[in-house]
Amino acid sequence: MFLETLSNLPGVSGDEARVRRAIVEILKDQPLELKCDTMGNLYVRKKGSARDSRVMLTAHMDEVGLMVMAVEKNGHLKFKAVGSLDSRVLVAKRVKVGPDAVPGVIGVKAVHLQKPGERRKPFTEDQLTIDIGASNGEEAEKYVRVSDYVSFDSTFTAMGEGYFRGKAFDDRAGCAVLLELLLDPETPPFDAVFTVQEEIGSRGALVAAYTLQPQRALVLEGTAAADTPGTEREQSGTVLGAGPAISIMDSSVIVDREMLRELVHTAEAAGIPYQYRRFTGADTDAGAIALSREGVKAAVVSVPCRYIHSPHGVMRESDFHHTVALIRAWLQSGTGK
Amino acid sequence: MKEAQLTDILLELSENAGVAGDEEGVVGLAARYFRQYTDRVETDRFGNLIAFKRGEKNGTGEQVSLAVLTHIDEIGAMVTKIEAEGFLRFTSVGGIDPRTLLGQAVVVHGRTPLTGVIGALAPHLLSEKERKKELKMEHLFIDLGLTREQALERLNVGDFISLEQKPLKLPTGCITGKSLDNRAGVAAAIFCAAELAGMKHDADIYFVTTLQEEVGLRGAVTAAYGLAPDLAVAVDVTHGELPGLSSGDVFKLGQGVTIALGPNIHPALSGLLKELAREQRIPYQPEPIPASSSTDAWAAQVSREGIPAALLSIPLRYMHSVVEMLHPDDLTGCGRLLSHFARSVDRRFVEGLACF
Amino acid sequence: MEALMKSLCEAYGPSGEEKEIRALIENAVKDSVDRIYTDNLGNLLAVREGPEPALLLSAHMDEIGVIVTHIDENGFLRIAPVGGVAPHLLLGQRLRFKNGAVGTVYHEKLKELRDLDWSKLYLDLGAGSAAEAKNVAQIGDMACLHQPFDSLNGRYMAKALDDRVGCAILIETARRLAGAPLPQAICFLFSVQEEVGLRGATTAAYSIQPGYGLAVDVTRAGDTPKAPLMEVSLGKGPAIKVKDSSVICSPKVRRFMMEVASQHEIPYQLEVLERGGTDAGAIHLSRGGVPTGALSIPCRYIHTASEMVDAADIQNAVKLLEILCRTSWSEGVS
After folding, report:
1. A84 touches chain C (CB under 8 A)
2. Strand, coil or helix: B233
3. Which of A267, B172, C23, C186 has its CA 20 to 30 A from that of B260?
4. Where exactly are the structural domains of chain A?
5. What is the average pLDDT across B128-144?
6. Is the pLDDT of residue A129 over 70?
7. Enclosing domain of residue C164
8. Which domains does chain B have, with CATH numbers?
9. Is A230 touching C (CB cutoff 8 A)?
10. Which residue in A has a C-alpha nearest to residue B307's C-alpha?
């Protein structure tokens, strides 16, 4: 399964090469045109009839992670977040450091050693370090370098009845949807871009949209679900199992009203379950794309995922398949031109 | 160019005012130097100064081009209101900590430059509680020694205000003053231009002194779009080491320019810079930047179809204050490294930059 | 002009839903220009042909509003802001949807008013059930403030004066210039999505590639009790912008505007706005840069249901703008 392969790969913003190479590997023998730019965006044109489709589908390859800022004299690594991370999810986690995926842990003072008051406060980023088992800085520098990227060490796995657990579903889920569509002979031609650096401000999408000059764009995402204890339904954003989440607006874009209607009508006509993303915050690549050149009509469809931006997300297999089905039907309906 | 001459240029650049949006004077000064060492000097529609040095084309294919981006603007303030008693209220232009401003000497750029001071009430007049309160820009005012009527004859709402400070060379060799952020970068670019004068290089080189960096990288946005160079290198300042700040965030003065690493930077460019530094024995410090570098390199990288970018930074303490401090060795090192880089890039290098 | 202002202010048009207001403006301005069209994002562009480089005049059509994010089983709606809306200003306020449906906003039980945030607000359409509510509004639908335009003593009070007053000024200017020869082409841009980040002006400026830009919008006033420290007052003339958070206006354009105003004895004020942006912010950074200025109408209570402006400021703004259009910018701005 593509999702499993992609989810397991490290690919923090600016360090997407391993994900990109895996995607190229999957696509290289297909009747597709592949191209790469200097930022690392991967452009894939699904060839078909001669008509110029001018619709662009994107998913971002990068994930949130960390960067090594300094190697301490005692061999510990100081780090900072790349992208938006709640530092509470880092405590007592295992990570992979640098191009050689050197294993390390983010440990904290044992509970026995903490004063009663200390325990009540969450750890902050500057209290945390990565320990690769080096006894001093010199030894550590044999394995890692300042500016190395760090990603969560999590392995994709199936869980419960039809659930997946793994890291980086935001947005390897979108990448996997895009791969399914690219490899499906039934899907009409379109331009796909696997973008870089979404998590630090949709940097890749800015360049990709300028390069391709589409008329319309559909952004595929993994978005936050909060159908969990203690969250009111109206605050849940999205829920698992209710199908693809169609955005109405986020902090970067007001979804084009015509595309919004098309997507809803497509889902209803084809009997594909869908939900609205009932949360209007957070940025996506759609914002950068919509403002490219003379303007691009843009929409966003997401696979709902719980616990995004943490070492382990949870998603529903059915949502993934329904997302593929919705986008395929939308492209087939001809409205996706 | 000798280090002493470079230092003098920096001192001259530093002493002049050039608040973001009002850089004309200091741009003229920089133009005088660039004119000596380049083929053509002009300003673009935004006001950015562009000094062009033609490359010697080698082999086939299009000429490659490199833009060296150094912002010349500085932080400052602007008049928002003239009070009944003649005191001026103001807003900051760029990021200033209001706590650095009490009792600060300023120049208000009215019809003619006006000398003034930012008022600070004597401690005797303040209660203990008042002194502990957060100091905000709206608590501050400028005293020009003028009544409202006199002030209205000489200045207007919207006039720029610069902080007044003569630069100083310390016995240790360090330089202290205002706006070393980023006159240091401009001086390094002038040094590089001087090094390259009379030398052959493949790439066309644009030395761009950008405007309005401090209010949002604005000059770099239009310059990068307008020039559409194949490569961009920004030269700016970074935070110098201070007690209590953690390594990785700050860098030692006098130990070399920093070479930025991270998503803003194309690894082939930082790789070449590091290689050249080692080859030429120019000391450098690696500077990891996990997201935005908040420099002109951040704007250039995503211009048009993407411009591979690099960033060199000169370590500097007390950024955005009038007592900024740097070491001139870092400045010359930066200028030298930049000129070696400019001579090294060619068509083959540029063609190898697409990622697979 | 008052009738025009009334119809524009009372029209529906939150960011991203500008169809109705666009039709209204198109109708009002189309006879005064050579060419009129709508672009991919929904911007309305009305063009007077003439020599290049062209002058781009921009006023935004959109207004702040809310978007429906959830409909509960009892028919209450949950909402999120579109643009800079303060939740407390919506309490008891009436909102209107595109289809004319009206509702009001209130909050869940709160311990203290300062606990108020968007998650505590709901919109009541008078529906008795989810099904009834869904007959009227869907998730993703937007509503704007619902408040009539009032003419006071030489002042106007309405919702959405930000920036329908700018739209009215552009329309009136276009009408006065109709048929007259012009020293430069003029593009009247009625932009979309300004309230969510100058989005319409960003793409429109890219496609028009103007030689010069000028945004017409509202600015804050410092003439109310304990107001922020700002020199601008209602009735002392339109404000020529020096700076806001999105732009430091081209000094050349600003000087040109000041000179023209002085020559024709049109009162004006200078404006430094500490927080807030205008279309000028997007226009001046388009492509290789566009020398851009901004003319602002002083306005109290911006982003409330009762924004207030002075009629004389509007008249003077039209006067100044008309002369500016009849003057050559390539000669004047240097």
Report:
1. no
2. strand
3. B172
4. 2-63+167-332, 71-152
5. 89
6. yes
7. 2-63+159-332
8. 3-74+178-351 (3.40.630.10), 76-163 (2.40.30.40)
9. no
10. A38
